[in-house]
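step 4 of 6: structure.
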Amino acid sequence: MALASSAVKDEALVHAAGCLEEASAEILAANAADLARAEQSGSPPSALDRLRLDERRLAAMAAGLRAVAALADPVGEVTEGWVRPNGLQVRRVRVPLGVIGIVYENRPNVTSDSAALCCKSGNAVLLRGSASAIGSNRAVAAALRAGIEKAGLPADAVLLVEDVSHETVDRFVRLGGVIDCLIPRGGPALVSLVRERATVPYVIDGDGNCHVYLDEHADLEMAERIVVNAKTQRPSVCNAAETLLVHVALAGAALPRLAAALGGVELRGDERTRALVPSAVTASDADYATEFLDLRLAVAVVDSLDEAIEHIARYSTGHSEAIVTSDLAAAQRFVREVDAAAVLVNASTRFVDGSELGLGAEIGISTQKLHARGPMGLRELTTCKLVIEGTGQVRQ
Amino acid sequence: MALASSAVKDEALVHAAGCLEEASAEILAANAADLARAEQSGSPPSALDRLRLDERRLAAMAAGLRAVAALADPVGEVTEGWVRPNGLQVRRVRVPLGVIGIVYENRPNVTSDSAALCCKSGNAVLLRGSASAIGSNRAVAAALRAGIEKAGLPADAVLLVEDVSHETVDRFVRLGGVIDCLIPRGGPALVSLVRERATVPYVIDGDGNCHVYLDEHADLEMAERIVVNAKTQRPSVCNAAETLLVHVALAGAALPRLAAALGGVELRGDERTRALVPSAVTASDADYATEFLDLRLAVAVVDSLDEAIEHIARYSTGHSEAIVTSDLAAAQRFVREVDAAAVLVNASTRFVDGSELGLGAEIGISTQKLHARGPMGLRELTTCKLVIEGTGQVRQ
């Protein structure tokens, strides 16, 4: 895989898309069986929805494969190069990581999306999906493997881990020397297992406890638009807002208006919030630390930009943090002093996403600082190699 | 530290250099006490040499601090930036990692070198040196802290871990949430402890089992120069060569000549090597996997470039691998197919070093693939932050 040309890798992905479409009857049948099992075992509707495939979702998966084929190949990119005084020519070149491991939950589209990004960047991928989706994943992986083989590449570039017992995850994260980069996509239990037990290198796709801070000098109309979008446009995802901080000078005008605009959202506020929005329930300290992923929003009134920055430093998971302000100095301080993968000025946190930012498809959003931070695309699935060419130079 | 300007950080380092010079009597006295203790406990001469400070070495440490002050500050560098169709302005900015942890062995110069690089890149550093050097490290750290304070920065940006019991390392590697990046600089036992136990993110400065491959079409004079330099110029360091691979077509002419040129070096060879160099002892499989760090070299004759590449894939630690050849196709294949932090063509492996490559001082050489690969300088002590500026954009 590492040595395959872009043309061949692209051909493999286009073939895989075709095979996925051809196998749609088998895939939907396998998915129906997974769904029936999940329903019987009492899975909640949101889990069933994540698991469900239909013609439209399958078409989107095939389109995703073709879209990744159309992206630029990061492998071989020379990111910098120079000549030393002794004539040595040095260049830094992007190369594949090797073997990527993905642990994920019940969305079968992750199987094809991840495989596409890993193959395009010259990696092999080990996919460990959830037990609930094993039938769907098996059918999707078979189609992908058939497509890859059609292009003359090894089918084993995409390997589904068939043993979905809980013990496998534990063994999986300890495949040091086999997996070059593990990407755990799941809840806090998975993340903590990885941190505690992994012997493999990993990049954590962690929680997003994202804040929107309305500065003293925020335009109210813009503030309302951004808060409503950040909270309600898709509340179940990591870049949705979870806490609203409002400068005390703006609170009287902003909070009642926002409460009205946020109709179906449960507000959990501090005392000063509740004085202005009587319908808000009392926020506990835990509420400020929670990624609700739901139509629920923690709210606090702060006395200053400093207090807002301190609140964020205390509760942030380092994902995405936004300020709404017309004051340049406040924007500059917020951008400089808030420590997160993404800081936004006068824009919705929902933009922190690979495709929204123009980076192409993403394999996750890193909340760690090493290797990748923020949306991870093809480039984050590579490492670099120093190439040093001489004419016989030796060190003095 | 993260918010300090380059000017203030540079001032701190220059003050630290002055304080180090002023404290030379105390530092040398503390070092003499450490040395006496180490001698009593029967440390080998090489360990005593690594521990020893003198006027010249202290002057080099002070010069190192001033040299780092003179390097460009990576913090704030905009590595890329673009505008989205909806008008969002996106840029990726380098920011400090936060708190760096270093675990190292008995060279007291690592205390000042590491502190300089961490401070310059806006980080705080926790230094965990060895028990044998605790007196020297305490005296060096005190001088550095005094210098940092003179510039108005917090002395605690440089913190020496005073408890040097073995249990501390175990606790140190589990300071998740405190240490943003751990750099273990030590032997296999430390590396394996980190891989098994660490909850903190880390970059491994690992072994260098470096190979030099003499291709069928290698210039013999150049080959001799490179092999002698790679093996003997400083055998105790990670970028020294440990194994020599020779194409069978060149072996008859090359091996006796190289054996003569490598006078004081013990050769451990396979059968074909020993047929040409009777003085060579028989190499075991373990010899090919060993980083000797000594005047000892494993040697094997290979039938082809493929066999050389396979041998390297089997035994390499992913540090630095060199080919000597005049054949373009062989050079191209070696560069593409060998998986290591650095691949060299017609140059000594000894060049894989931050200063030799013009990257400035280095805090280690990463043999892992995530975050940093190869020599790690100031840039590798940073992460990035996405800054997204809008005019009220929300996601559709």
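step 5 of 6: annotate
 - Chain B has two domains: 6-204+368-388, 210-351.
 - The radius of gyration of chain B is 24 Å.
step 6 of 6: archive
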